[in-house]
Amino acid sequence: MPDVPEHIIDLAKKPGTEPVVVQTLRSSAAATLAYLVALGLTDVTAPLLAPLTALLVVQVTLFATLTTGVRRVGSVVAGVLVAAGFSTLVGLSWWSLGLLILTALGIGHLLRVDEFVPEVAISAMLVLGVTQIAETALDRVVETAIGAVVGLACNIVFVPPVWVGSASQDIEEQAHRMRTLLVQLGEEAEEERLPVHRVAEKLERARQLDQDIAQVDASIIQAEESLRFNPRVKEPLMTRIVLRTGLDTLEVCAVILRTMSRSLTDLAARRGDEPLLAPDIAPALREVYANLAGAVDSFATLITSQVSSQADEAEAFLAIELDAARVSREHIAKVLLARVQEHPRHWQLYGSLLADVDRMLDELDMEKRSIRLAEELDRYSREQHARFLRLKRYTPRWLRKRRTAG
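Above: the chain's sequence. Below: its structure in token form.
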């Protein structure tokens, strides 16, 4: 038997409650139902546009469905009408296919369907390939409408899954990568003959964290959208703010970690025949990095625990880790000061290491986090108030008087 890829095995092991599994089943059911409804309501032998449109409309989140469904349906309908016109005038050939694609893409841009412009051309090609009879254009439009209605109905009756758990897992994995890198930096700092290329490898891993942050950001965007208009979620606003502000903090910490790695790489390149760090500095630096690693891990646990209503315990662990990191920070500050006074050659790099520790402690501080959450809530309230004022401005005067009288 050939080896089965690991990602396929992981997908097969996912329980039926996983968002990926739920979304797959919802999309399959919606497409099949749309096909059956189109068979009953139209005379088309194989109404494939109905399940196609249903698949496009049944998005991962209800918010995405309601905000992009109209543009998706518009792009499909535009493609059907373009194909109907081409089937009447020129039929299907290599040059008409190229002209069809060009026309469909141009119309998509004129209609401002944004990211769904390619779907105008895809729908046009599908219809032109299936039929070249102009009289069936109305049936194709009906198919599209059936698929859109079925897709919207499925998202209303069967509420899309919440992707908060997936986003929380991605945050924890990102924090684990940062924690591992901090621990390894501290361990390598104690080695007497550490090659420069090994320190440079850690710098490359620190730079890779930026790409990892981008992937986590996409996961959180999906989670934020899954919370909108979802009746199954309690306090969706607070959940969204906790996840977003938490990722912002980890992103800043990732930048600081990259700066730490850069400073150690510069030290390794300038040391000559000397050890990377003096015998009294290396253990102190390892201790402070280990405490920072624990603080990063505890911070991620706090973010995800607030989502699962277990914030008190996580907050206590974070407080312990931060206190330990501050104590070790004071110790290494004294050691570095004494070393610089005796041998000031690398004072700027030592100062950079200490400044990075201070910055990370400041970012992970719980009081600062509370202030950030309060600021985000205030900003959201101001945006809602401004939106209400704009809506009130466009409300008819007679309706405003009626509400006031009521």
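Residues 3 and 9 are 10 Å apart (CA to CA).
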